[in-house]
Amino acid sequence: MMRHSCIAVAGYFAVALLALAGCGADEKAPAEEEHDLGQPPAPGPQQAGDGAGVALAIDRLFLGEVDRNGEKVPGSWKQFGFNLDGKVSAAASTDLCKPISGATPADVYPDGDDGIDNSFGKNIVGLISNFLGDPSTEVTKAIANGDFTVILKIDQLGAQSSYNPLTTKLYGGATLGGAPAWDGTDAWPVVPELLEDGQDIESAKVVFPSSYVVDNTWVSGPQTQGTFKLNLTTAGKNIGLTISNVRIAMELAEDHKSAVKGTIAGVLETDVLVEELRTVIGTVQPTLCEGMTLEGVLDQIRATSDIMKDGSQDPSQECNAISIGIGFTAKEVKLGDIAPPAENTSVPCGTAPSDGEPSDGEPSDGEPSDGG
Predict the structure, then answer these.
(1) What DSSP assignment string belongs to 113-140?
(2) Are 62 and 264 in contact (CB under 8 A)?
(3) 3-class secondary structure, 238
(4) Does the reported pTM lie above 0.90?
């Protein structure tokens, strides 16, 4: 039986860590800070893993319109993300890429707390809410129903508070078949799209070989070039987000069986995001596919660009990407069986499904599938 991507998959993280560079004039020197402003903690001394490891599955997602308690508090987006460009930006900043025509620096530039870059949470989540209600609430409900999750399997994690390095593998959780118990016994099926060998659960495509734990905070580790597709399911609709320059971190509980204050940060290439949201809008409200209404909405999205697609800033260039920060919590699970491939059910504006169109589980044009 084929799974439908609009109900089965909420997020797939693929290997995507790209070196971050740049120093802003408002940034404190590293010697003045325990770690770089707006960044996760740096790794400690080498300490090999000495335990059985753990698999942690995301149970709540926070997209920016709510705080980490799930409450609608103005400015909640400011706490989600990392300082990707190494700058603490304000409306008067002059060392940043140029806003897209029609956008103003006062709307685009100001960062969140400690230079956090998150134009997605600041500007786009509100636009999405106009079509899909309360995104964070709906996505979390879908996870609570067992429709999907994302799993981080940290190998050899033991009882100590710090390790360096640890190998971590990432999996997409398919439909569980019922509400999870969240007591460590849930055997969550794994989507095959994120496996090198669709029949070998150990062949994860997404591997963080240099992840580490410092004072019970897990960090994905040094960045390497690449992108991943995060598919958010909300109100029965699928929103695809192709993210690059990613860093992931989370605070582990003392027993290492749950995590809070999880953060996913990265960059969305503007042109790619526009086409991804064109699909969502066409699926939710097909009438917007006609005339200038759709392009007006997409122009609003373009105007939120605040960074370059490689995660840097270039005052001589127009911004061509949008920073993103998402929060999460996670709980212990077990890896279950390998699920069947997903089926794509999205219909973008101006197109119709065809028998020859590949599903999300089938790569096209030589690009790897994200499984969404």
Answers:
(1) GGG---HIIIIIHHHHHHHHS-HHHHHH
(2) no
(3) strand
(4) no
CA distance 237 to 295: 20
Identify any residues that bridge with 169 across adjacent strands, giving them in sequence order.
153, 207
Helix (H, G, I), strand (E, B) or coil at 46: coil
Profile the chain (372 residues) by mean pLDDT over runs of 10 residues.
38 30 33 60 96 98 95 95 95 96 92 96 87 84 91 97 95 93 97 87 88 97 68 70 89 98 95 87 72 81 96 96 97 96 66 43 38 40
Going from N- to C-terminal start, the domains of the chain cover 49-336
The helix-helix angle for 125-132 and 135-144 (nearest 10°) equals 70
Q: How far apart are CA 128 and CA 135, in angstroms?
A: 8
User: CA torsion sign, 123 to 84 to 29 to 109?
Assistant: negative
Mapped to the 3 state alphabet, what secondary structure does 54-109 carry? EEEEEEEEECCCCCCCCCCCCCHHHHCCCCCCCCCCCCCCCCCCECCCCCCHHHHC
Sign of the four-CA dihedral 167, 170, 173, 174: negative
Rounded Cα–Cα distance for residues 231 and 335 (Å): 20
pLDDT of residue 172: 86
Structure tokens at 307: 């960074």
Instruction: Report the relative pairing of strands 206-214 and 217-219 from DSSP bridges.
Output: antiparallel
What is the C-alpha separation between 60 and 54, in angstroms, rounded? 18
Question: What does the alpha-carbon distance between residue 91 and residue 97 come to, in Å, rounded to a whole number?
Answer: 12
Amino acid found at 263: T
310 DSSP 8-state letter: T
**Residues with Cβ < 8 Å from 27, sequence gap 6 or more?**
37, 86, 87, 88, 115
Q: Closest Cα partner for 89 from 275, 243, 319, 256?
A: 319
